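Pipeline run #58 for the internal structure catalog. This entry was flagged by the ingest filter as a single-chain record with no existing model, so it goes straight to prediction. Upstream metadata was stripped on purpose; only the residue string is passed forward. Reviewer on rotation: M.T. Logging verbosity set to normal.
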Amino acid sequence: MTQELVVVTGGAGFIGSHTVDRLLERGCRVVVLDNFSTGKRENLDHRRDDENLRIIEVNVADGIWAALSSVEQAWQPVDRIIHLAAQTAVVTSIVNPLDDIRSNYATTVHLLEYARCRGVKKVVFASSAAVYGDVDESPVRETAPKVPLSPYGIDKLGSEMYLRYYAEVHGIPTNALRFFNVYGPRQDPKSAYSGVISIFMDRASRGVGITIFGDGEQTRDFVFVGDVSRAIVTACFSESASREPVNIGTGNETTVNQLAQLVIDAIGSKSAITHAPSRAGEIVRSCADVGAAKASLGFEAQIPIADGLKQTADWFQSQS
């Protein structure tokens, strides 16, 4: 079987590094493009001697042609692209929407143009549940109204539309995956981009109190990064490209109160749980309808939240 070359933008990040691991285990050649604004070189340190991995420091918003020219000459043309690089802070997108357009919208078009000119076999794009905004239905289906509440969500939705355009007009096979609340090892709790699990995990590991905003009965669909990376690689090599985005979640709701206790149990912590006033604009319920991912990709999440939290807790404790 021919060894394929896969480009992973944002490959040194939390989700990206797990995806790189899975690709290398599959026998692929992998090129990571990352500017290390949020990604970390240490996320790939365990792969530093792998002859099938190249890491190039570049801001993909500036374009990828020059960055990939040396790789194309030394190895081969790029076969597939997994686009994970993004500015992921919703608040930052609100404060500076022009930068968000450049990072999260224009960059996608750069990559799709490269894919068109180079005849790339597949482009997989990391979208987000943020495209839905505050919807009434739960679990939310891909056909639900899309009314994003931030420039971040708007730019993700716009990128999805560009994927559809390049698929329909230029014949580029694409998949857009709408991630719900991803968690797991390598998620940085000190970053403004972190999810609630990494923050709770960090506080519990230090025995510091955990603060829940509101009554804690708001729900989220927490999906383990190992499942997410599997979904990404499955989409990357799927023969059937889908022009319809699919949700990547578990289909299960967990309240924030339940989550806090599960984290404390996983860590073995004595952290106290306190409540603070709810935050304006917070979504009350969020859960993915996962039927489309199963139908189009054959993907189902496999890691129960208690097991995923245990793996995450083991990683956090190994870092201390």
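catalog note: The first helix runs from residue 14 to 26.
catalog note: The chain has a mean pLDDT of 90.
status: ready for reviewer M.T.
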